[in-house]
Design brief:
Elements (H helix, E strand, L loop, with lengths): L9 H4 L13 E9 L3 H12 L4 E4 L15 E2 L7 H7 L2 H10 L2 H13 L6 E8 L2 H16 L5 E5 H7 L7 E10 L2 H14 L3 E3 L4 E5 L4 E5 L3 E9 L10 H4 L3 E10 L4 H7 L5 E4 L5 E5 L5 E9 L7 H12 L8 E11 L6 E5 L3 E5 L6 H15 L4 H7 L9 H22 L2
Parallel strand pairs: 1-2, 1-10, 2-7, 4-12, 10-17
Antiparallel strand pairs: 3-6, 4-6, 5-6, 8-9, 9-10, 11-14, 11-15, 12-13, 13-14, 16-17
Bound molecules: flavin-adenine dinucleotide.
């Protein structure tokens, strides 16, 4: 597949109507130029448009083409590492603020869905499923931890209660986050783009940025156009490539794969996940799944380090699905696809600025639906001169990958092997 080519997926096939947008073919001026129309870029742009800023988004492909339009749709709270890890990495004040913001992303999404009437099949409820006693203990710890930050929506589930949520023998228990939920991810992105445009924002598609010249104004170039802007927001995440080498050296694109079954019919679908929550297990290399609005099972899992596209995704994911739901043995798979998220060494996100007026956020390490919306808020506030949130995120360490790009894949795969083994042994 060529870079930025269309990605056939269940989401693309069930996307709400959206206009095709022009590519940039002239020289323009704006206050803010956002690079990338995933959730990070769209969320930032929408916050800024709401605050009255003139904003242009440059997108290399189409709105939601990246991870934002292909993900599992699990709208879960907190970060890829939990708040106790965050607290060990920064000051007490920053940790407190990051603790509050860990539960903000879902609120932002819900507010937007309601305010702009975004049709994205939003459903309440997310289950974390434990496969062994160590994971159950971690969920008990998580409940106390989140409560210490004022969040009281977690409910622990024993095996029987868990089976009322997920009809499988695999888990020993789990927890239900009543404040989380799931969405049709591409339709959320398309809805946010439409909301942004309704406020006068402009999106150019098929307009990959090839160069950023820092300065006041910054000069952002595509193959056929130029944007001069007071501020630039870099939101290309795992698809940014080497546009900014200082961001590439401290992160690694990784692929994760998803399948969508044929429609199962309401009865069979509800027999699998009776209350329509989304589910993720507690393994390091986790399985994540949920039902679509038309009663398909959407099942994702696994990680390909270095983001090479696997040849046969169904062969990779179907056995995982059948391990959870053996009753789906004869069910057909209608769609498979892969997408890239951006891993950091700490698995914590990286946000900050380059010079005085180029801001970035990247690397939520696979846990980004809610975080990217928080990031949008933090970046938009920073551009308005309120840097408290951005500074708290920027205080988290941004480690380079050991060995640079050449060795980061084997190092990370080795780390994942170790954590995967621990999960398999339940230690
Ligand atoms: C298969 C999959 C499943 C996932 N499941 C979940 C889940 O269930 N829950 C969860 O919380 N997270 C999940 N994630 C992670 C989550 O989707 C991402 O963290 C999040 O969408 C990242 O959003 P983003 O806007 O930062 O990046 P993206 O959505 O990847 O957007 C970046 C955009 O920037 C554009 N771009 C890149 N370079 C340039 C350039 N030079 N010029 C112009 N545009 C450029 C790209 O074309 C792309 O559209 C999943 C990720 C994947 C891949």
């Amino acid at each position: 597949m060529t870079a930025f080519a269309p990605v056939p997926s269940y989401y693309a096939a069930s996307a709400n109507p959206t206009p095709s947008r022009p590519h940039l073919s002239e020289s323009i001026e704006t206050q803010v130029c956002v690079i990338g129309a995933g959730y990070t870029g769209l969320s930032t742009a929408l916050f800024l448009a709401e605050a009255g800023f003139k904003v242009v988004i440059l997108e290399a492909a189409t709105v939601g083409w990246g991870a934002s339009g292909r993900n599992g749709g699990q709208m879960v709270n907190s970060y890829s590492r939990d708040l106790d890890v965050v607290a060990r990495q920064t000051s007490a004040d920053a940790a407190r603020l990051l603790g509050q913001m860990a539960f903000e992303g879902g609120r932002i999404i819900r507010q937007r869905v309601k305010h702009y009437g975004i049709q994205c099949d939003l459903q309440d409820g997310a289950v974390f499923a434990a496969l062994n006693p160590r994971q159950m203990k971690e969920l008990e710890h998580q409940k106390k931890l989140w409560e210490s930050h004022g969040y009281d929506q977690l409910e622990l589930l024993d095996k029987q209660a868990l089976q009322q949520q997920v009809n499988t023998e695999r888990y020993i228990g789990g927890s239900m986050d009543h404040g989380s939920g799931h969405i049709h991810p591409l339709n959320l992105a398309l809805g946010e783009a439409a909301a942004f445009e309704s406020l006068g924002g402009v999106i150019y598609e098929h307009s990959a940025v090839v160069d950023i010249q820092q300065g006041q104004p910054a000069v952002v170039k595509t193959a056929q156009g130029v944007v001069k802007a007071e501020w630039v927001v870099v939101a290309g995440n795992a698809y940014l490539g080497k546009l900014l080498p200082q961001l590439a050296s401290k992160s690694m694109p990784c692929g994760t794969q998803v399948l969508a079954t044929e429609p199962l019919g309401e009865e069979l679908a509800r027999s699998l996940i009776p209350r329509n929550a989304c589910i993720e297990d507690c393994n390091y290399l986790l399985d994540y799944y949920r039902l679509s609005a038309d009663h398909r099972l959407i099942y994702g899992g696994g990680v390909v380090y270095g983001a090479r596209d696997p040849v046969d995704i169904e062969r990779l994911i179907r056995p995982k699905m059948l391990k959870t739901f053996p009753q789906l043995q004869n069910v057909k798979v209608d769609y498979t696809w892969t997408g890239n998220f951006l891993l950091t060494l700490s698995r914590l996100p990286q946000m900050g600025r380059i010079g005085s007026n180029v801001f970035y956020s990247q690397g939520c390490s696979g846990h980004g639906v809610t975080f990217t919306h928080v990031a949008g808020q933090s970046l938009a506030l920073a551009i308005q001169g309120q840097t408290q949130q951005l500074d708290a995120f920027a205080s988290l360490p941004h480690y380079p990958f050991p060995g640079g790009r050449l060795f980061q894949v084997p190092f990370s795969a080795l780390g994942a092997w170790y954590y995967d083994l621990r999960d398999k042994l339940g230690i």
